[in-house]
Amino acid sequence: MTLSKKVVILGHFGVGKTSLFRRIIDNEFSEEYKVTLGVQIKKKMITLPDGRELSMILWDTEGHSNTVEDTRKSYLLGSHAFIYVFDLTREDTYKNLNQDLEYLTKNYKNVTAKAIGNKLDLVNEKEIKAQLKEQNIPFDCLTSAKMNKNVQDFFSDLASELAK
Amino acid sequence: MEDQDKLEILKKLLLTEEKEFADSIAEKVEELSKIVHQKQELSHKVDPIIDDKLEQFVEEIPKTLGPTITEALKEEIKNSQDAVVEALFPIIGKMIKKYIAHEMRLLSENINRKTKAAFSFKNWFRKTRAKAQGITEGDLILSDYAKPRLMQMFVIEKNSGILLADYSPLSDGTIDKEMVAGMLTAIKSFVEDAFEGGDQDLELIEYELYTIHIQNFYSYYVAAVISGAYSMMFKEVLEDQILDFAQHNISNKELKNSALFTQKLKKHFADDIV
User: Looking at the record's lineage, which domain of life comes first (chain B) (predicted)?
Assistant: First the structure.
């Protein structure tokens, strides 16, 4: 029997949520920036290491301009995981990360919350890791949707975690 | 030496250059007349060849220039899709309208002809019904055709939009049911949020010839896609059937076992909803 899990992608405007979404669903990337209005939903079938299939229903939400509390609540209800995406080149997209993650874990109990720093191709990996550590910014993965770096691995790991 | 001879010698001495010039001009004129004469001759031989080549060129335009022109047109259409659609929409709309009107007229005539020709108890009953209602038999049959039909039914977890079970009396289409379930939930959530109606739920979506009937329960909702005329009477019957199904068939066991749930849904809604 196929497992189905709802995974919501969150974050500020222009951090690359839709780029990650397109990369994992269609393995595509576009330089053209189009603002997501409302939400778009697609499905990604992931084969787990034990051979089972997991149907990941991804909700790519429109970006918020301030905090994650601005995201439409009804989109977050019933989620199995949140992916909070921030832009490694824009500090304003991760300066409230701790508060945002706290809000999510407090209000949506038992929902896995992951933080992803995107646009790794535009920064020096060592330097940004040091900077994030210094600023006490937690992250689960640093990705580049453009270069397809760490994206597939991140979603495979998330699928395994959700299937447990 | 006579005077005449002397004059000739003098002429030769004085006019040598002019004579040479005159001779050269005469020579050039002769050459030019030859060329003109030759061209006329030449054209007799060359013109048919050129005509053939031109004809061949015209014939081969679709092969040689066709792909380039097609490619250029495709590119142009691709780059200005909105403009093309905008321009074609009214034309296509009128064509479809005319076509449908024509086909409906043919269908109605065909039905009338057949019903006149055939005799059976069913036909007799229909004839009586038509007379009693004051309409033609054809119109009565057409209204029967427009009767509502269940096209697809989804049982969806309320907040997550995860598909719990689905049933369609038609063969499985190409639509991704899980994505449809997600999108329906997103639309529903959006509408319910946007109008801040408290605990009110979205119950109906109309889309051209289809109606999506939504019936809400505590942790899930049922979405039934209906084609044809969705009347109040049909709505009531459908609601009752869904309530009946929920009451007798949906428990925690079904909600956790998608395959079993789908099987029960199929069994319950296999017959036409009247």
Answer: Bacteria
Together in a domain, B262 and B202 = yes
Domain boundaries, chain A: 3-163
Q: Out of A38, A43, A78, name the one closest to residue B160 (CB).
A: A78
Question: Which of B169, B164, B147, B157 has the alpha carbon at shortest distance from B268?
Answer: B169
Query: Which one of B103, B128, B144 terminates a domain?
Result: B144
Contact yes or no for A25/A76 (Cβ under 8 A): no
The predicted structure's pLDDT at residue B256: 74
pTM > 0.90: yes or no: no
Give the gap in angstroms from C-alpha A33 to the nearest C-alpha of chain B: 18
pLDDT of residue B31: 82
Instruction: Give mean pLDDT, residues B113-120.
Output: 66
* In chain A, residues 45-84 whose CB comes closer than 8 Å to chain B: 55, 57, 59, 72-75, 77-80
For residue B134, the 8-state DSSP code is T
CA distance A126 to chain B (A): 38
- Residue B89 structural domain: 81-144
Q: Which of B179, B183, B192 comes nearest A74 by C-beta?
A: B192
Q: Quick one: average pLDDT of A108-137? A: 93
B160/A80 touch (CB, cutoff 8 Å), yes or no:
yes
* Pair B110, B94 in one domain: yes
Asked whether residue B263 is assigned to any structural domain, the reply reads: yes
Contact A59/B182, CB-based, under 8 Å?
yes
The ipTM is: 0.80
Instruction: Kindly state whether residues B93 and B153 are assigned to the same domain.
Output: no
Interface test with B, best of A2, A4, A80 (most B CBs within 10 A): A4
- Give the minimum alpha-carbon distance from B244 to chain A in angstroms, rounded to a whole number: 26
Nearest CA distance, B84 vs chain A (angstrom):
23
B25 occurs within a structural domain: no
So what's the architecture of A3-163 in CATH? 3-Layer(aba) Sandwich (3.40)
B contacts of A77 (beta carbons < 8 Å):
159-160, 189
A43 → closest Cβ in B157, B178, B190: B178
How many folded domains does chain B comprise? Answer: 2
CA dihedral sign of residues B3, B9, B10, B11: positive
DSSP notation for B148-193: -EEEEEEEEETTT--EEEEE-SSPP-SS-HHHHHHHHHHHHHHHHH
Q: In what order do the strands lie in the sheet with A53-61?
A: A39-47, A53-61, A3-11, A81-87, A112-118, A141-142
With 90 as the cut, is the pLDDT of residue A97 above it?
yes
